[in-house]
Amino acid sequence: MNSTKKQNFYHQNWRWFVLGTLFLATFLNYFDRQTLGTAIDPIAKEFGLDNMQIGNLLSAFLVTYAWMHLFIGMMTDRIKNLRWFFPFMVIGWSISTMLVGLVDNYEHLIWLRYLLGIWEAVNFPICIMIISRIFPLEERNLALGIFASGAFLATLAAPPVVIYFSNEYNWRLAFIVAGSIGFLWLIPWLLIFRKPEDKVANWHDYNKVVQGKSFKFQVNNILNGYLSILKAPAFWGVALIGVGIVPSLYFATQWFPRFFTHVLKVPYDQTLSLRLSAIYFMQDVGLWLAGVVVLFLAYKKVAILKSRKTVIVFAWLLMISVIIVPQLKTVEWSVFFLCLYVFGIGAFLGNQHAFKQDIIKDKVATVAALVGFIEMNFTSQVIKQIGVMTNDSGDFSQVFFMMAGLATFALVVVFVFMRKKWLIIE
Q1: Torsion angle of alpha carbons 379, 384, 390, 396, nearest 10°?
Q2: What is the C-alpha end-to-end distance of the chain, expressed in Å?
Q3: Which alpha helices (H) appear in 169-214, and where do they start and end?
Q4: What's the Cα-to-Cα distance from 106 to each of 110, 205, 250, rounded to whole Å?
Q5: Does the model's pTM come out above 0.85?
Q6: pLDDT tens, position by position, 126-147
Q7: What domains sit in the chain, N to C, each tagged with a CATH number?
């Protein structure tokens, strides 16, 4: 790279342009998966579904999404041509979403959700890996917050868009529109993510691939990589934090629409979308502010680990306020406390993503994928169980207490497992 390019604004800030494409991919990733949860009312009416069937449908995506994490991290860490691999997966999940608009029965809908989980599993491991390679330590929390906020902005955008199409046209059109947008993402990605080795000095060091070795050697190499991760105490800490926090995320994005329409009796129209969007907006604010606070404390010479734990404690205090919701009598107060709850989810998750980068530096995608396998398998069972718990009575009280308990479990895990001696924070 010549000196002119070094002084060029674009090349100096290339990492932030790449981050923009990762943000957009994550937005699409979550918008596509969020479409079902938002459209569940008209879908349930058309196919005659009860809460148990809805729980099975909402958890179908999570099952394949979780199991794919066993393979996708290893693949991502070893694939040399990320520029074309990532778009291939984005096109896959876009087509799977569009096909939902053509289904004619409940069984086909479930199978398409299984398929969506396979394609979408790549997004978080590959994005976290790229960020760990192109951003310095002090910028990573903020970069992670920005990239992951695409997910929560998608949950913010999904209610008005999906409800509009469902009411004005048909819920099927919402899926076709959501999936088709994925093809537009290819343009900025292919224009920006070109020749990363020219912009990141040690890019090839991260991209070592075993060549000229036997199949047995390569298999052993992969298994040894998994074993080294599984032996790391911090890995189990990050995974167990996810077990405590990620179910809250999917409870909010998948079950809140049903809670509002069937418990709080909010009509399925833009009244509902405004309330859901307000709540999901606070989730995004929590994610961004958590990164900003950690960055601010780091510049004040506070240790990164201490900064993260400070933010996490504050996030937990907000999350446990959710136990108040079943006692509230008005929609407005319910919205207020659910906003506090999801603000805490965002702040907690932002720091969990950061910890994934601090376990084994050359296996970030594999670490993120194995964490995803554990947390998403557990989450899929929780989402399904919510359908069982609410099917007869329609009462969500036990669900809210369960989520507060899981958040408390995650807080305990942070102080037991996330220790300086077990982390590589550099």
Answers
A1: 10
A2: 26
A3: 171-180, 182-192, 203-206
A4: 6, 48, 21
A5: no
A6: 888 888 888 887 788 788 878 8
A7: 16-193+214-418 (1.20.1250.20)
